[in-house]
UniProtKB/TrEMBL annotation:
Pfam families: GAF, HATPase_c, HisKA, PHY. Residues 657-915 form the Histidine kinase domain. The keyword Nucleotide-binding does not apply. This is histidine kinase. The keyword Coiled coil applies. Its EC number is 2.7.13.3. Residues 31-190, 465-607 form the Phytochrome chromophore attachment site domain.
Length: 919
C-alpha cells in the first residue's frame, strides 16, 4: 500500500471526522478497551499506515502493547507483547516526560523529527515546528529489525505522568505532515480524557464491589435470628480470593462467671477449652504429636500482638524470620501468603480472622529474549517470542485489600458479642429444665433493674444542679442495691481527688464511722501514676473481698482505715474525659456483687456523666449570659461616661474660654478706674479753684456751664465712677465663679469649698431663675452651713450639682406650663454635717423643689442609663446616671431621691469629708 498525499483541506476534514468519531466513542462507552481498539483503527485509517498501536507503561518502566490495528498483515502483530524498559533509552524517556515531544523517524533518510521542542533545563518552548536531526544508528537498527521504515510516536499522559504511547509504523518510507502530527496530538488528548474516565469507572466499580462484599458479610452476620459465622467466614475468604481461612474466637459459653474476663491470650494457652475455631478451605497441617494444636497458639502469633493491634499482612511466610516456627506446618501445602485480622471490641482482643493464599505461577510474554550481558547494549535483531515463566510466586497484599480487611474485621468484631451471647444460650439450653426458673428470675430481675435505672435517671434529670444530682443519685442507688454507702468521687488535674457526693445507709451491723464524707480527700498513688488506671478504658472494678484480691498490704491498710471490705467503682465520663468514679462500699463485711448489680452501677455512672455534662453546660451558659449582661452594662456605662464627660468637658472649656476672654478687658477697666476717679477729683478741685479766683467769668463760659449743667456734672461724676467700680467688681466675681465651675486645672482629687461650687453652678443657671413673660420666676433659697473643705473631684461634683439643679428647674417649668403659669416655683439648697457608714464624717447637700413630683415606678428608674421622661431632643437620660456613679462609685457617698406626687422632689447627696481607701 502506497498512501497518496491528500490535500490539506481533505486532511483537515478527515481529522475533524476522526475526532468526532473518537469523541462519540468516548461518550458512548467508558470501557477503555473498546475505546482504544476503535481509536487505533480510526488513526490507522486516517494516516494510511501499516500499523497503529497503543503502548502502556508498567510501574517498572517496561510496557505492553494493549491495542493494535494492522493493514493486510503488512507488519507482524505485537498485541499483548511486553517490551523491556531498556528499549526506550533514558534520554528518549526524559524527552517524553519533560518535554512531551512527538517524534517522527524516517529510516531511509536517517532523520528524526521532534515537535514541540523544549529546553530540558528551563522547560521553555524553543519551537513548535518539526525540528529534524540525525537519528541514533541504534534506533535505526532497532526499527529495521522490526521491519519499520517510518515511525511516529506521540506520548499519552494521565495526571501529569507518562501513561503510554500512540505509535504509527509503516513498512515503507513516508513523509508525515504537521497536520497529521497535530491530528495525532488531538487524538492523544482525547485518549487522556478516556483514560481518566476509565480510571474513575474502575474506582467506582471497585468501591461498589467492596460495598457489595461488606453488605453480603453484614447480611450473613446479622440477618439470621442467631449469628452463624461459618458462611460469613467463607464469604470473607472469597472476598480476598483466598484458598482457605480460619476464625479463632474466645468462647465465653464454656466459661464460668469467675473466668469470664479472661483474655484471648489466656484462652489460647494449651490445655484450655475456651477457644472456638471455624475453618474453611485449605489449612496448615499440624503434627499429631504437638503441644500447639492451633497455629494461633504459636509464640510468633502472641509476640506480634503484644506490641501491634493492626492487620498483619504477610506476603511470604518463608521470608519472615519471626514465622520460622510456623513454616513447618505450611510446607506440606501451597499456602504462601497470610492475612491476619485481629478482632477487637472495646479495646479487647476477641479473636483472629485469618485468610490464606496459595503461591502462584506467573508468565510474561516478551517480544524477544533478554540477555543480561554486553550484547544487551545493542539493538535487538531478533524479536522471537519468549515466555518468562516463574514458579511458586508469593502474592502481595494490596492497600485496597488491607482497607477491606479492616472494615470486615470491624463488622466481625461487632457481631462477636451477639455470637458469644448465642453460645451462652446454646450452653444454657443443654440443661433447659434446670435453668428455666433461674432464667425467669434473671429476666425479672433485669426488668426490675431497668425500671430502677429509668427511675433513677428520671429523678436525676429533674434537676440541673450538681449537688442535687449527687444527692439524688447516691441516695437512690444506695437504697436500691442495699449498699452501706454510695459516694461520688471527682478527680483533680493530678489524678488525685475528693468525694463530692455521699449517702450513708443507717445500719445496726457496723459502727458508721468510716470517715468518708463530702470533701474527704483520697489520693491513690496507682491512679495518680497511671492517669486514672483501668477506669480510663471505661472499666468497672468490682471487689467482693479486699483480702482475696491480692492487694498490697499498704492498700489493705488504707481500705481498713475507712472500714471498706467490698466495693464497686464505676467510671464517670463527661464526654470523652474521665471525670470521676461512682463508688459503692460495703462496710459491714465482704459482699459478692452480682453481675446485674455491677451492670446497674455502670449504667447509672454513664447517666450520671450525662447529667453532669448537662449541668456544666447550663452553668457555662449562665456564666456566659452573666458575662454578656455585665459586658453590656459596662458598655452602657462607658457610653454614658463618654457622652457626659464630653458634654461637661465642652461646657467647661466654653466657660473657661469665656471667663478668660472677659477677664482681660475687665482687669484693664478695673485697673484704670482708680486713676480715672483720681483724675476726675483733681479736675473738679481745679475747677472749683478757678471759680473762686474768677468769680465773674465771661458770658461764653457761663453759657457753656449752663449748657452742660456743670453743677450736676460735678455732683454726679463721682457717683458714676463709683457705680462703674461696683459693676466691674461684679463682673470680676462672675468670672471667678465661672473659673470655679469649670475647674479644668483640677482633675485630681483635692480639698474644695462645696458651697462655692454650688454658687458657681447657680451663677451659670441664674438666667433660668428669672421670670419670663409667660411664666413666673423661680425663688432660690440657700441654707449653707459653715462646713470645712471637702476632699473630692471638684469638677465632677459641679457636674452633679448642674444635673440635679437643671432637672429641678425643668420640672418646675414643665409644671408651670402644664398646670398653672402663676405657680411660684422654689428651690431650696442646704448643706449640713452628717455621718455616713462606720461613723465617717460627711457633708450632706439637699436640693428640694416644689415641682409636680415623680411617680414611684419612674423614681426607681431615674438613675438607669438612657432612661428619660423628657421629649426627644431635650434629654439624653444620662445626667442622673452619671451623677449616681460620681457620688457613689467615685466618692463612696450616697445619692438618693425622695418624691411625693404634687408636693415636689428632694435629692440627697452625701459624700465623706475625707476619702478613705482611695475612693
Amino acid at each position: 500500500m502506497s498512501p497518496i498525499a491528500q490535500p490539506n483541506s481533505q486532511v483537515s476534514l478527515n481529522q475533524e471526522s476522526l475526532l468526532r468519531r473518537i469523541t462519540a466513542r468516548i461518550r458512548q462507552s467508558l470501557e477503555l478497551e473498546d475505546i482504544i481498539t476503535a481509536t487505533t483503527a480510526e488513526v490507522r485509517a486516517l494516516l494510511g499506515t501499516d500499523r497503529v498501536m497503543i503502548y502502556e507503561f508498567h510501574a517498572d518502566g517496561s510496557g505492553q502493547v494493549i491495542a493494535e490495528s494492522i493493514y493486510e498483515n503488512r507488519l507482524p502483530s505485537l498485541l499483548g507483547l511486553n517490551f523491556p524498559a531498556d528499549d526506550i533509552p533514558p534520554q528518549a524517556r526524559e524527552l517524553l516526560i519533560k518535554s512531551k515531544v512527538r517524534s517522527i523517524v524516517n529510516v531511509a533518510t536517517g532523520m528524526i523529527g521532534q515537535s514541540p521542542v523544549h529546553d530540558l533545563e528551563t522547560g521553555e518552548l524553543i519551537s513548535e515546528d518539526i525540528c529534524y536531526r540525525p537519528v541514533d544508528p541504534c534506533h535505526v537498527e532497532y526499527l529495521t529489525a522490526m521491519g519499520v521504515k517510518s515511525s511516529v510516536v506521540a506520548p499519552i499522559f494521565h495526571q501529569d505522568e507518562l501513561w503510554g504511547l500512540l505509535v504509527s509504523h509503516h513498512s515503507e518510507n513516508r513523509t508525515v505532515s504537521e497536520d497529521e502530527l497535530e491530528a495525532m496530538q488531538m487524538i492523544v488528548d482525547q485518549l487522556a480524557v478516556a483514560i481518566a474516565q476509565s480510571y474513575l469507572l474502575t474506582q467506582a466499580r471497585k468501591k461498589a464491589q467492596k460495598e457489595a462484599i461488606i453488605n453480603r458479610i453484614i447480611t450473613l452476620l446479622h440477618s439470621l435470628p442467631t449469628i452463624v459465622l461459618q458462611p460469613a467466614l467463607e464469604a470473607a475468604v472469597g472476598a480476598f480470593a483466598g484458598v482457605g481461612g480460619r476464625l479463632c474466637l474466645r468462647n465465653q459459653a464454656v466459661e464460668s462467671q469467675q473466668v469470664a474476663s479472661r483474655s484471648l491470650a489466656e484462652c489460647l494457652i494449651p490445655g484450655n477449652d475456651c477457644v472456638q475455631l471455624y475453618t474453611c478451605g485449605q489449612q496448615p497441617i499440624t503434627p499429631e504429636q504437638t503441644i500447639y494444636p492451633l497455629i494461633e497458639q504459636y509464640s510468633a502469633w502472641q509476640e506480634h500482638y503484644k506490641s501491634h493491634h493492626d492487620i498483619w499482612a504477610i506476603a511470604d511466610i518463608y521470608q519472615d524470620p519471626t514465622l520460622r516456627t510456623l513454616q513447618a506446618v505450611f510446607q506440606p501445602t501451597k499456602i504462601r501468603s497470610i492475612l491476619i485480622i485481629p478482632l477487637e471490641y472495646r479495646q479487647q482482643l476477641l479473636g483472629y480472622l485469618t485468610i490464606f493464599r496459595n503461591e502462584i505461577d506467573t508468565e510474561t510474554l516478551w517480544a524477544g529474549r533478554i540477555d543480561q550481558d554486553q550484547r544487551q547494549m545493542l539493538p535487538r535483531v531478533s524479536f522471537n517470542l519468549w515466555r518468562d515463566a516463574k514458579k511458586s510466586q508469593a502474592q502481595q497484599w494490596t492497600r485496597e485489600e488491607i482497607e477491606l480487611a479492616k472494615e470486615i474485621g470491624q463488622h466481625f468484631a461487632s457481631a462477636i458479642q451477639q455470637y458469644e451471647l448465642y453460645q451462652q444460650v446454646q450452653a444454657f439450653n443443654e440443661n433447659l429444665e434446670k435453668q428455666v426458673q433461674k432464667r425467669t428470675l434473671e429476666l425479672r430481675h433485669t426488668s426490675e433493674q431497668q425500671q430502677a435505672v429509668f427511675g433513677v435517671i428520671s429523678k436525676i434529670r429533674e434537676s440541673l444542679d450538681t449537688n442535687s444530682i449527687f444527692q439524688i443519685t447516691t441516695k437512690e442507688v444506695c437504697q436500691l442495691i442495699k449498699a452501706d454507702r454510695v459516694s461520688v468521687y471527682r478527680f483533680d488535674h493530678e489524678w488525685g481527688g475528693a468525694f463530692v457526693g455521699d449517702f450513708e445507709a443507717t445500719s445496726p451491723h457496723w459502727s458508721n464511722e468510716s470517715k468518708i464524707s463530702i470533701n474527704t480527700v483520697w489520693n491513690d498513688t496507682y491512679l495518680q501514676n497511671t492517669g486514672g488506671g483501668r477506669y480510663r478504658y471505661n472499666e468497672t472494678f468490682a471487689v467482693d473481698d479486699i483480702y482475696k484480691k491480692g492487694f498490697t498490704q499498704c492498700h489493705i491498710e488504707n481500705l481498713e482505715q475507712f472500714q471498706i471490705y467490698a466495693f464497686v467503682l464505676a467510671p464517670i465520663f463527661v464526654g470523652q474525659k474521665l471525670w470521676g468514679l461512682l463508688a459503692t462500699y460495703q462496710h459491714s463485711g465482704p459482699r459478692q456483687w452480682e453481675s446485674s448489680e455491677v451492670n446497674f452501677l455502670t449504667q447509672i455512672a454513664a447517666q450520671l456523666g450525662v447529667a453532669i455534662q448537662q449541668a456544666e453546660l447550663l452553668n457555662q451558659t449562665q456564666q456566659q449570659a452573666q458575662k454578656l449582661t455585665q459586658a453590656l452594662h459596662n458598655l452602657q456605662q462607658t457610653q454614658t461616661q463618654l457622652i457626659q464627660t464630653e458634654k461637661m468637658s465642652s461646657l467647661g472649656q466654653l466657660v473657661a474660654g469665656v471667663a478668660h476672654e472677659i477677664n482681660n478687658p475687665v482687669n484693664f477697666i478695673y485697673g484704670n478706674l482708680s486713676h480715672v476717679s483720681e483724675y476726675a477729683h483733681n479736675l473738679l478741685t481745679m475747677l472749683e479753684l478757678y471759680q473762686q479766683e474768677l468769680p465773674n467769668p465771661s458770658v461764653e463760659i457761663l453759657e457753656q456751664a449752663d449748657e452742660i449743667d456743670l453743677e450736676f456734672l460735678a455732683e454726679d461724676l463721682p457717683k458714676t465712677l463709683a457705680s462703674m467700680q461696683i459693676g466691674v467688681e461684679r463682673i470680676r466675681q462672675i468670672v471667678m465663679s465661672l473659673r470655679t465651675f469649670s475647674r479644668l486645672d483640677e482633675a485630681e482629687m483635692k480639698a474644695v469649698n462645696i458651697n462655692e461650687g454650688i454658687d458657681s453652678t447657680l451663677l451659670i443657671l441664674q438666667h433660668r431663675f428669672k421670670a419670663k413673660p409667660e411664666t413666673a420666676g423661680i425663688k432660690l433659697t440657700k441654707k449653707y452651713a459653715d462646713i470645712p473643705l471637702v476632699e473630692c473631684y471638684a469638677g465632677q461634683m459641679n457636674q452633679v450639682f448642674m444635673n440635679v439643679l437643671s432637672n429641678a428647674i425643668d420640672a418646675i417649668e414643665d409644671y408651670q406650663e402644664a398646670q398653672s403659669k402663676t405657680h411660684h416655683g422654689e428651690i431650696i439648697i442646704s448643706t449640713s454635717f452628717g455621718q455616713i457608714r462606720d461613723n465617717i464624717q460627711s457633708i450632706v447637700i439637699r436640693i428640694v423643689d416644689n415641682g409636680p413630683g415623680i411617680p414611684e415606678d419612674l423614681r426607681l428608674r431615674i438613675c438607669d442609663p438612657f432612661f428619660t421622661t423628657k421629649p426627644v431632643g431635650k434629654g439624653t437620660g444620662l445626667g442622673l446616671s452619671i451623677s449616681y456613679k460620681i457620688v457613689v462609685e467615685k466618692h463612696g457617698g450616697v445619692f438618693k431621691c425622695d418624691s411625693q406626687l404634687g408636693s415636689g422632689t428632694e435629692f440627697w447627696i452625701e459624700i465623706p469629708i475625707r476619702q478613705v481607701n482611695g475612693n
